[in-house]
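Technical note accompanying the year-one report. For the benefit of new consortium partners, we illustrate the data format agreed upon in the data management plan: each record pairs a sequence with a structure-token string. No post-processing was applied to the example shown here.
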Amino acid sequence: MTIPTISDYPMPVAASFPANKTKWQPDAKRAVLLIHDMQRYFLRFYEADGKLMTALIDNLAKVKAWAVQNGVPVIYTAQPHNQPPGDRALLNDMWGPGLTVV
């Protein structure tokens, strides 16, 4: 099994976000930005020229620029290719073999 094709859908708008009950504000000195699953392998399941990918990449670029400008470390996840089944463990059951080529 692999990841099925994902149809384009609209990004949520700020008006639909839940209220910030805590009134917490981001503190750049105590923050890190984690960019997760943005490898081409994962993005290829979406419509490449769709509004979702355009909005996602534009928004991510803005967040990353803010992080860099404010001294927030930026960390990326990267799934290695050809992982042994023992390393993938439960991922195999859900998503199949994963990245099989570089």
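Partners are asked to follow this layout when depositing records. Strands lie at 33-35, 74-76.
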